[in-house]
């Protein structure tokens, strides 16, 4: 009798919170539906299927018949539904209470809708830390899948990875399967017979083994070029035919059946990590390039197979360092989680708290918090969606805590967890977060009526893959190439569009430029900075009145070596959606003009669309929001997004010159390299001279008008928001 082997095929289907409805539908038509259609034809094949909560909820609404088909396969035993974190949060990024809550609530949803018995879970992005074991076990999960890379980092050799292991934390046990990296690259890119041959070799050498393939379902149709390969040219049908033809020794089985049939190989404690590629993406750009160069130098060395097991990449949590914008989202989510826990302890309205919890969970969806060949840090609509749900959770908590209809509050605390104090101004219309220690900038501005953060910006920074952009597009692989090997430009000239920022693109960034600095130089971040006010500490104090609060920030610095003091005040009034911004410059020379600019970035306002445009108070339109403007002697400018239903109107009490330009990044996605609009930069600038006392001042206003959006809301929603 031939030696047998058990093959566990586990698909992970996922679409993130905030992705476009058309993307969901296209992935359904290209991957999820055709896979199931082919699968139906091969009754001897069994699989495990994990579908993330955002996608599952969308399917239930738009294609319930698909879920009914899954339920039938669950009942017959052909599909094991794998549970997980409801909204696909990276577990080390959320508190233990949210880990257990997200997993347990998704288990209940899957049981109710599909009749599934949930025993295993998908580990989002396979990001693992050993202390997660106890929380996962507390949520009722018995086993999960990591990559074989994790196990090799624990000291196990490849020959020891043809089964599953048990791990524990404080006596709580969890079984862990090693997913095969080799299989991830074979399926579906290599000929189907290659996979059978690979498995045959393992069966002969290691009989009664368990091999696990765990990877994205989107690679079967949604990834570039795979639909034609997998379905039109019949790769999947060929693969299932080969599995069926070899079923006497190659047994497709579920993870549940594998744990019932075989004991664990042994016990293991697994170091923190993720899949190999993710650990590389987590490193700083220069380290990534050094790593890639080292691999290319060593991969043909006969010693490489022995050496590479000892080489590891970076630590996943450091994405929050690489991209401070993601750390802001993380900090915001954590503060809401803490607030929610306190509200539960205080016995607030349980119905509203459950709604707030669901919004929080959605705002923890992982894709916006990291970046590589996948990941959505560079995708504004995904970052906007995170803030949309977090702000909605804040609004619901206000209702649960019975805050008054009109109020104003200010709080000083370390809101972004950098060991320095920030200031939060809040009324029923806006939430403003300011960082005195980082240039006195405004780094978050939440418009509560539409749950939108106007400062969900992203700076332009170097990426390791930019050297591929500079090298130009190329084809790689054979019939179809893995995403990791493709170099495709989604538009021409990207190599000419690489630009980098030396500071975060926020609002109230204070610059001194050469008097002849041009719009082009400033937009490219090539203008020489002549002052020391960008991202340097300001001192702050609060000035309170019953219905009006001002944050006053000041710094004694210099420009061109001239000692200067900048004092700026940001004032919020209860019931108002206007920020008043006042500047006072002291120590200015009376006989010399200095070029002073205040940078303001606004995010979530896309460019290139006729219904998103600059305008002035007289109604004159000045072009779409990606237009570079060089205006003079103006005192107002509006940025209107008719689709979002918002009009952001800036005005000043003295005439000014004004620049606008888009902030766009060259970034990587599944489809290739592309230019992505991140924010609109608006920069009023003056050539300032001191009066008799060496002073100069200006008062500006930023008014946020969402009447257009509110007029489109159902009456009950509008009243709920206003009550919040």
TrEMBL record:
GO molecular function: 1,4-alpha-glucan branching enzyme activity; carbohydrate binding
GO biological processes: alpha-glucan biosynthetic process
Record-annotated Glycoside hydrolase family 57 N-terminal domain positions: 9-271
Entry keywords, A to Z: Carbohydrate metabolism
UniProt cross-references to Pfam families, sorted A to Z: AmyA-A_glucT_m, AmyA-gluTrfs_C, Glyco_hydro_57
Span of domain Alpha-amylase/4-alpha-glucanotransferase central: 314-396
Domain of life of the native organism: Bacteria
Alpha-amylase/4-alpha-glucanotransferase C-terminal domain segment(s): 414-699
GO CC, alphabetical: extracellular region
Coiled-coil residue spans: none
Family as reported in the entry's similarity comment: Belongs to the glycosyl hydrolase 57 family.
Protein name: Alpha-amylase
Biological source species: Blastopirellula marina
């Amino acid at each position: 009798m031939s030696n047998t082997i058990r093959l566990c095929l586990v698909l992970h289907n996922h679409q993130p919170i905030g992705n476009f409805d058309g993307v969901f539908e296209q992935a359904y038509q290209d991957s999820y539906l055709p896979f199931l259609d082919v699968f139906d034809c091969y009754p001897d094949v069994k699989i495990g299927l994990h579908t993330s909560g955002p996608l599952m909820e969308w399917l239930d609404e738009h294609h319930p018949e698909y879920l009914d088909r899954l339920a039938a396969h669950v009942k017959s035993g052909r599909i094991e539904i794998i549970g997980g974190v409801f909204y696909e949060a990276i577990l080390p990024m959320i508190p233990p209470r949210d880990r257990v809550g997200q997993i347990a609530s998704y288990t209940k949803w899957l049981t109710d809708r599909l009749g599934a018995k949930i025993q295993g879970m998908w580990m989002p992005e396979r990001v693992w830390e050993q202390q997660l074991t106890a929380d996962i076990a507390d949520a009722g999960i018995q086993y999960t899948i990591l990559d074989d890379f994790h196990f090799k980092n624990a000291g196990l050799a490849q020959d020891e990875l043809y089964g599953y292991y048990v791990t524990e934390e404080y006596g709580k046990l969890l079984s862990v399967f090693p997913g095969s990296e080799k299989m991830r690259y074979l399926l579906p890119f290599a000929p189907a017979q290659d996979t059978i041959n690979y498995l045959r070799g393992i069966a002969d050498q290691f009989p009664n083994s368990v091999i696990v393939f765990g990877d994205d379902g989107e690679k079967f149709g949604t990834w570039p070029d795979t639909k034609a390969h997998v379905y039109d040219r019949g790769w999947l049908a060929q693969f299932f035919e080969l599995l069926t033809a070899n079923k006497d020794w190659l047994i497709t089985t579920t993870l549940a059946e594998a744990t019932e049939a075989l004991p664990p190989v042994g016990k293991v404690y697994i170091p923190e990590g993720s899949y190999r590629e993710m650990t590389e993406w987590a490193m700083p750009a220069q380290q990534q390039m050094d790593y890639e160069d080292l691999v290319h130098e060593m991969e043909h060395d006969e010693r490489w197979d022995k050496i590479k097991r000892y080489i590891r990449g970076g630590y996943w949590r450091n994405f929050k360092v690489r991209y401070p914008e993601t750390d802001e989202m993380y900090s915001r989510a954590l503060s809401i989680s803490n607030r929610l826990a306190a509200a539960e302890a205080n016995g607030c309205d349980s119905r509203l708290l459950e709604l707030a919890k669901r919004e929080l969970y959605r705002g923890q969806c992982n894709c916006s918090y990291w970046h590589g060949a996948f990941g959505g840090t560079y995708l504004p609509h995904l970052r906007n969606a995170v803030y949309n749900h977090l702000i909605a959770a804040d609004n619901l908590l206000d209702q649960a805590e019975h805050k008054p209809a009109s109020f104003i509050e200010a709080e000083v605390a370390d809101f972004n967890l950098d060991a320095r104090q920030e200031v939060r101004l809040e009324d029923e219309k806006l939430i403003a977060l300011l960082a005195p220690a980082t240039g006195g900038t405004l780094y978050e501005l939440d418009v509560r009526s539409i749950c939108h953060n106007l400062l969900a910006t992203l700076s332009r920074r170097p990426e390791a893959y930019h050297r591929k952009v500079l090298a130009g597009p190329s084809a790689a692989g054979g019939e179809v190439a893995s995403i990791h090997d493709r170099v495709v430009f989604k538009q021409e000239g990207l190599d000419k569009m690489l630009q980098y920022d030396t500071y975060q693109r926020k609002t109230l960034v204070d610059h001194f430029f050469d008097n002849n600095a041009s719009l082009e130089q400033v937009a490219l971040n090539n203008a020489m900075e002549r002052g020391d006010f960008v991202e340097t500490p300001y001192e702050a104090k609060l000035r309170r009145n019953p219905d009006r609060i001002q944050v006053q920030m000041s710094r004694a610095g210099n420009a061109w070596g001239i000692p200067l003091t900048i004092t700026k005040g940001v004032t919020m009034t209860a019931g108002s959606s206007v920020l008043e911004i006042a500047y006072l410059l002291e120590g200015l020379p009376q006989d010399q003009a200095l070029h002073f600019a205040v940078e303001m970035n606004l995010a979530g306002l896309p460019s290139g669309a006729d219904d998103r445009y600059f305008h002035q108070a007289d109604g004159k339109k000045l072009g779409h929001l990606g237009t570079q403007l060089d205006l003079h002697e103006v005192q107002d400018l509006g940025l209107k997004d008719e689709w979002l239903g918002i009009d952001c109107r800036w005005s000043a009490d003295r005439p000014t010159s004004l620049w606008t330009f888009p902030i766009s990044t060259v970034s990587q996605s599944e489809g290739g390299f592309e230019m992505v609009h991140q924010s609109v930069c608006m920069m009023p600038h003056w050539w300032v001279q001191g009066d008799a006392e060496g002073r100069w001042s200006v008062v500006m206003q930023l008014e946020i008008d969402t009447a257009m959006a509110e007029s489109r809301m159902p009456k009950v929603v509008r009243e709920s928001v206003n009550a919040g």
